[in-house]
Design goal:
The structure is a homodimer. Chain A is α+β, with helices and mostly antiparallel strands. Chain A contains 6 helices and 6 strands, in the order H-H-H-E-E-H-E-E-E-E-H-H. In chain A, about 30% of the residues lie in helices and about 30% in strands. Chain A has a 6-stranded antiparallel β-sheet with strand order 1-2-3-4-6-5.
Amino acid sequence: MFNNYAALKICIRFKYTAMVLILLVLSGVLSEGPKAAAEDSFSPYVDSEGKITRPTEFREKWTYLGSWVHPEDKKGGFHNVYTQPGVAEAYNKNGGKFPDGAVLVKEVMSEGAMDMTTGKGVLHAKDLVLWFVMVKDEKGRFPDNPKWGDGWGWALYYADAPSKDVSTNYKKDCLGCHIPAKQTDWIYVEGYPVLK
Amino acid sequence: MFNNYAALKICIRFKYTAMVLILLVLSGVLSEGPKAAAEDSFSPYVDSEGKITRPTEFREKWTYLGSWVHPEDKKGGFHNVYTQPGVAEAYNKNGGKFPDGAVLVKEVMSEGAMDMTTGKGVLHAKDLVLWFVMVKDEKGRFPDNPKWGDGWGWALYYADAPSKDVSTNYKKDCLGCHIPAKQTDWIYVEGYPVLK
């Protein structure tokens, strides 16, 4: 019923099956590696000193929150705001609270205007001008960094140097425009229908 | 060097390893089931007769293409356009061609206006009005369905009955407004900066 030869054959068969399956499983595990690593730290966009890196994949892969459109400002009046996948859902589940690590990107663009069958001078986004980035920080992680405070990290990048955060102090550079939205954690949520 | 007992031990070890790994791999394969099934058909939003179902997850999970904003039309002048993840990338890779099965959703909303530090009467999207949906069809799949033609399926849903496509004939209900965009496959791509 069971001899050396039969045992060897069965064993070799399962051995190669096992090896192939081990490789398949490992390839799956390894492909999840970077994601798992990023989740271990506060944010993939923030280093240990609080330096904020501008996200680049938000147009294709993030949730669009809404736009603020300034009819009189053709040079930089089209403001589109995005956040990571899952943030809107977390905000709605959690009674209107942005989760720790949530990133908002406001992409400021110039405006084009077209006469269309639906109206004259219909506005659309045209050329890049700058990006504002905010990172939600529930824990006050960077008390000595003047770009962090009031529950957020604050950054500003111009289109001609898209990797360089040119803000120096959020109180001076950023907070002024957000004061009217203080009651909603400094964010103008009225323009974001996906937030309930 | 190799006897019955050793062979049996090794074999049993690999046999159970193989079984566990087979189960792991199968669980992964099975969890992909619904996705794989959807990919087998033309589109999860189109039935065998060409009836188009309105996507509902586009706000959170799809790519935002851009907005058309009508400053004079507060009741329904804010038009936000979305497409599935991956469509913009495919369009750009493929020389400006929408892939077969690509869905565009235009969400038409009323407008709110706020005086802000950045300008007066700044417009934002407010309440739902209606949705236009288009589905790219390279193969002319529904020649006898008057809601399909010129390379697309066309549908229209009002906010008070969001599951009911009220269009009857795309040539009568839809095409008129798209004629100026005929050269770009009937789509106003000028307003979609993510498309190159």
